[in-house]
Amino acid sequence: MSEISLRPALITKVLPDSIASEIGFEIGDRLVAINGTQPRDLIDYKFLCADEFLELEVLDAKGKTHKVEIEKDYDEDLGLEFETALFDGLIQCNNRCPFCFIDQQPPGKRESLYFKDDDYRLSFLYGSYLTLTNLTQKEWNRIEQMRLSPLYVSVHATEPEIRTRLLKNQRAAQILEQIKWFQKRRLQIHAQVVVCPGINDGIHLETTLRDLAKFHKGEVPAVASVAVVPVGLTRFRPEEDELIPVTPEKAKEVIFQVQQLQNELQKKSRKNCIWLADEWFLIAGEDLPPESHYEDYPQIDNGVGSIRLFLRKFEEAAKSLPAKVAPERRLTWVVGNAVEKAFQPILERLNKVEGLAVEMAAFPSQYWGQKITVTGLLTGEDLLFNLQGKDLGEGILLPSLMLKHGDTRFLDDLTVAEVSDKLGVKIVPVNGIEGLIEGCVGDGAFDCADRFSHTFNSNP
């Protein structure tokens, strides 16, 4: 494990009409300490700021230190945002999982693409997955003392030898004991199982899911949910990784296996804690389960039920679609070919609007070397390969999940501006259902003087 030394937290935003704004905080100031304690991360910051009386030590952009005293309501927010949630740097990953996406990228890209983290704080704050193999006793103590729950854990296998083989780390064998640690303290995890054919599938997958299901009991189940996800491979992965792509036949096998177990568990306890990612059904060419199947969407960020939820939200939003738009417009909506079939109802409804013609451009990623690709993995190079020389109408509707959060850059480092120039057409990144509809029928999306319109947040 490697950690960057603690440093003052850089302030990147001061919310208007906030306590911080009234006091005079400025972008570029650095927060050194709160009541004599230097926060390690956003978790510490929120915990320390909950008090009614605060003494802040602040370093301004000129290097001058200030002491600031604040009296406020308990839990009232100061109105500060920071460059990063982790003031002491990421906890790096010491596993060597063969399916790690970081290791399946080509060389020569921006440095941040190759940085592996295994940080429990990002798991608690944002739902990112960690393995628990990189935690020191100090970190375990902090999780317990601060009740950092739920955490999101990449389990993959509960059999010690199988999990060790997958993570290439002897500490990986401790997973069941670690889950018991959560159970004893009434803390929770959401588990993830990435299925790698020939390694942790079949009887091993059965064992893993049954082991995890045993922890789904009581008022505070240690395992709140389990997502079963197909391994994703790219053409850049190491040749010796021993991994096999998930075929439609394998996807159907896993769907049948997991659904049998789901039915069994529901008969016993009337509860389901095991969920199949949407990708299994897309790969298998099968219909998605009904929306009622997903209950309260406990693993929505892992692609479990995200398409059904997206379709429902569109149906609701489509009620406000106009009967007609003027002037007439023809647009191209880019998606991964994995959702081509599932999104046909959306396409059909949009094209019922008089004067609006939307064509779906659904394709796999040549860049990653995949036959079936989810939308978020499409790159600028994929757009150029599939769309260059084609009549794309007035412009392209681009789901913003293809872009780095808060940036205009694709995963292959090309920018929206570069791709737009090469295609000779305007590109409008759209965020979620509202962004898609606004891009289609809104005034000015494709006829304003600016060449780009940006909204950068995640969507299904």
From TrEMBL:
<dbReference type="InterPro" id="IPR041489">
    <property type="entry name" value="PDZ_6"/>
</dbReference>
<dbReference type="Pfam" id="PF17820">
    <property type="entry name" value="PDZ_6"/>
</dbReference>
<dbReference type="Pfam" id="PF19238">
    <property type="entry name" value="Radical_SAM_2"/>
</dbReference>
<dbReference type="InterPro" id="IPR036034">
    <property type="entry name" value="PDZ_sf"/>
</dbReference>
<dbReference type="InterPro" id="IPR013785">
    <property type="entry name" value="Aldolase_TIM"/>
</dbReference>
<feature type="domain" description="PDZ">
    <location>
        <begin position="11"/>
        <end position="48"/>
    </location>
</feature>
<protein>
    <submittedName>
        <fullName>Fe-S oxidoreductase</fullName>
    </submittedName>
</protein>
<dbReference type="InterPro" id="IPR007549">
    <property type="entry name" value="DUF512"/>
</dbReference>
<dbReference type="InterPro" id="IPR045375">
    <property type="entry name" value="Put_radical_SAM-like_N"/>
</dbReference>
<dbReference type="InterPro" id="IPR017673">
    <property type="entry name" value="CHP03279_fam"/>
</dbReference>
<dbReference type="Pfam" id="PF04459">
    <property type="entry name" value="DUF512"/>
</dbReference>
<dbReference type="InterPro" id="IPR058240">
    <property type="entry name" value="rSAM_sf"/>
</dbReference>
<feature type="domain" description="Putative radical SAM N-terminal">
    <location>
        <begin position="72"/>
        <end position="217"/>
    </location>
</feature>
<feature type="domain" description="DUF512">
    <location>
        <begin position="229"/>
        <end position="431"/>
    </location>
</feature>
